[in-house]
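User: Can you help me understand a structure? I only have the sequence.
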Amino acid sequence: MSIDLRSDTVTRPTEAMMEAIRRAELGDDGREGDPTVRKLEAIAAEITGKEAALFVVSGTMGNLVALLTHTGRGGEVLLEQGSHIIRSEMGGVASIASLFFKGLPGRRGAMDVDALNDAISPGLSYNRLATGLICMETTHNDGGGAVLPLDHMAAVAEVARGRGIPVHTDGARLFNAAVALGVPAKRICEHTDTVNFCVSKGLSAPIGSLLAGPKAFIDRARAFRRMVGGNLRQGGIAAAAGIVALEEMTERLAEDHRHARALAEGIHRLHPGFVDPAEVETNIVQIDTHATGRRAAEWVEALSGEGILSGVWSPWRLRLVTHRHIGEKEVAATIAAFERLHRRLAAAAPQRAAE
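Assistant: Let's start by predicting it. Here is the structure, written out as tokens:
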């Protein structure tokens, strides 16, 4: 059986989730409201310290709805240049929300605050669009699961509020960040007006994300959710698993972090250039393949032959993500596969160079 390290989205629902789905009280969420959805939304609002929350089918939809609700289409969004919204959400910021975006320099997902201050445009002028929104991301996917420090988030929020610009945070793995920082999720959310998080990644629910913020914002967001095709009917079937995810699964994310660090340490021992374990803060391990002379796609294919499923993140980086189905045995097997392949690929390197 394969060891699937492609993403924490491959997690299967727990037995408790399946039982909750079977027993869920249902209604029409697009009409009078689904009681199970409403319960999940109330829990999400409480856990993030916001007034209200909205259940959506995916993190991508949650971010898109947030962009639309904050800006009403038009204007410019400022984000760190490697943000998931720019990199992996299929251009919704431009093609659907009709927004322009500007990627700002940063380190491990933390945007340069001075660059942010300089990039803000207070209003529409003859050569500049008005800044409509500032976005952060924690944990940061392109940054290898890096967690934004709270003082950095506070600095971004201070700049934004001082200039009258709202802040949205893509917190797809918000609870990974909270566990890594050792704080409740609402401490992170103090530094953002709205936040979107997934219950379908490490929390193991089969579907869904929550967008949380002020009540007036969420009321408006419901209309945009419908606009983009996200209106729900008996959404409680999915929401029931999300309730279990938030009530039972957040603290166990620390196990995934330990396994990711062990995986990084084992691969680092094979070659220090592969990964720096000190940079593995949560459940994502990015492997730099430059030292082997083989691109990430070649490594992914070779690992697949060993029964290890991974993903290409960039031409010379592959990504491994730990989750509930990855334990010590799977970590050891993955390290062993890397060791075998490292020896094999290194031995073949001279022959390949001769060709």
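Now, to help you interpret it: Residues 252-354 form a domain with the Aspartate Aminotransferase, domain 1 fold (CATH 3.90.1150.10). The CA atoms of residues 53 and 212 lie 4 Å apart. Let me know which part you'd like to focus on.
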